[in-house]
Amino acid sequence: MTTLTIQYDARNSLLKQLVEVLLTAGAKVVEPKGKNVSEKDEVLKAYQTMFGKRKGNKYTDNEIFIFNSKLNAAQTVAKYL
Fold it and tell me: pTM of the prediction?
């Protein structure tokens, strides 16, 4: 058995038919085994690193502003290094 990953326009009728034919022929949709690290998870980890872990992962608007300001400043300085 092999795994095939495809990216296609779901509005394309021909491609939709091809996917249906593959599924009818016995192909299966398999969810990825590994945990996908989303951008939200990465941001949450960065918040936790900077401000510590919080109950319910609640951070104040001021903390979010400080985090974003530091991130933007770091990206701006990195352009000129």
Answer: 0.48
Q: State the sign of the Cα–Cα–Cα–Cα dihedral 8, 14, 16, 18.
A: negative
Both ends of the chain: CA-CA distance in Å?
Answer: 49
For residues 19 and 15, what is the distance between their CA atoms, to the nearest angstrom? 6
Contact yes or no for 42/35 (Cβ under 8 A): no
Which helix or strand (DSSP H or E) is residue 42 part of?
A: helix 39-51
Local mean pLDDT, 10-residue blocks, the chain (81 residues): 82 91 90 69 88 88 92 89 79
C-alpha 59/C-alpha 7 separation (Å) is 36
